[in-house]
Amino acid sequence: MQAVHATPETVTARIESAFAAIQRERMTGVPILNPALAVAAIGAQRWGEDWLAILVTPWCMNILLLPGAPENPGWSGLKPGATARRALPSGEYSFILGEEPALGRFLMCSLFSPMLQFTDQAAALATAEAALAELMTPVVKPAPATPQGVSRRNLFGFGGEGIEAAS
Which of 27, 40, 56, 112 is the most buried (most CB within 10 A)? Predict the structure, then answer.
């Protein structure tokens, strides 16, 4: 996917078109399909040099990363099926490299599969939007707790409390 002319709308359209074709051509009659769901790409946005979106299909919900440019060095050497770790604000995730002629290379991280627990498209889209919000929320690590009311003397057993004098 070329970065020069890509917009969130064009990235969304390419993802949806590629996965709608997969549904029509390869997924017809597969028992794990949820007939209440359709293909949708949620929240396409730049993430560093790449594009990030949540993919909703009748068979899975994945985090998708697409290279922002074909020469992106973070993608070199990866072959379909290979795993790659990528950091998002909420943490680091393992992705699997996929490749489709209509879309090119992409990294995917499964959120749900199969999708049978979703009653309708609205529920799946709401879940995708909530997942995206959580993924993009930085993890805040709490400051280490410091003991209150303990002096260094007491901490090392020299405070006199509970210590008997040697005879």
Answer: 56
| CB contact at 8 A, 110 and 62 | yes
- Give the percent of the chain with pLDDT over 70: 83
Instruction: Residue 15: name the closest of 35, 49, 39 by CA.
Output: 39
pLDDT at 46: 95
Please give the backbone phi and psi of residue 73, each rounded to the nearest 5 degrees, phi first: -65, -25
Pick the CATH number of 8-135 from 3.30.1460.40, 3.10.20.600, 3.40.50.2300, 3.30.300.20: 3.30.1460.40
Closest CA to 61 of 91, 39, 35, 87: 39
**9: region left, alpha or beta (phi > 0 left; psi from -120 to 50 alpha):** alpha
User: Which among 44, 45, 36, 37 has a CA at the least distance from the CA of 15?
Assistant: 44
Closest CA to 86 of 76, 96, 77: 96
Query: What does the domain layout of the chain look like in residue ranges?
Result: 8-135
Say which DSSP state 150 is in.
-
> Burial of 8 by CB count in 10 Å (0-12 exposed, 13-18 middle, 19+ buried)?
middle
pLDDT in tens, 79-114: 889 999 999 999 999 999 999 999 999 999 999 999
Q: Scanning the structure block, which residue is given the tokens 């090392």?
A: 156
